[in-house]
């Protein structure tokens, strides 16, 4: 009789645990289904103390849902030429005029770096963006997009915490210049002979993780970008690639992305704290050797490129009449 009673108790306990587990899944699904950046952002903030990876080398592997059976190109650009390839097709509204393009990219990278930093998520400048930091702490004037890297652990954190396909609101202070006869309010300040109006603009960005981010092979090269931070108003984006040890047994301590960029642990970590476009940023420890390895020694010595000339006294690239060179 006691054996039967114990058996029934065990069955009842198993049923209760199963029911509770099923209920928790329903609640989690409902929470994610609400969508929007704000509730997901709050959830991530509550967890960041215990869950966010640090600035030292994070775990190179991460768990994620199984990848789709058939691989296809996930991100689509507005076109194939050098200009349109820097716009996400879903949000493309037309080519941004040259005088506004630089400002748009500046707000883009500021919002990205500030959002990740505020949640303790390490991300660092990469490729041409890192080269721009080396020269002036700013985006190179001929660059059409922005590049950043994260660890595989950070990418997994973004997915696990429900950040994927979330929208983020960012407030940016900017100044609008205008004619002295134009209407202005109390926020107008004089600057030399002209006037400008200060305003705080709200911008919205979309974080999208590639459905094939878990694919460790390059395959056809259509999905080497693991995630994007996209300006929903214009379609310009930050290309985000994840680094991890793809062969920890055969080549331990070698981190790489799907586009064959490889770095030893000591070249990446620990990350250096710095500033880029006026906000806190991180760069790899061995940035100097990294830039030489990717672009050659001349990239740190040339003073004219893509119709611009370096002015050391001003610390900026000034536009010239020449149009040689191109993106880096």
TrEMBL record:
Intracellular or extracellular location(s): Membrane
Residue ranges of the region described as Disordered: 46-65
Membrane topology term: Single-pass membrane protein
Primary location group: membrane
Biased composition (Pro residues): 55-65
Gene Ontology CC entries for this record: membrane
InterPro entries xref list: FKTN/MNN4/W02B3.4-1 (IPR009644), LicD/FKTN/FKRP_NTP_transf (IPR007074)
Domain annotation LicD/FKTN/FKRP nucleotidyltransferase: ranges: 118-249, 258-296
GO BP, one annotated term: glycoprotein metabolic process
Keywords: Membrane, Transmembrane, Transmembrane helix
Name under which the protein is recorded: LicD/FKTN/FKRP nucleotidyltransferase domain-containing protein
Provenance organism: Chaetomium globosum (strain ATCC 6205 / CBS 148.51 / DSM 1962 / NBRC 6347 / NRRL 1970) (Soil fungus)
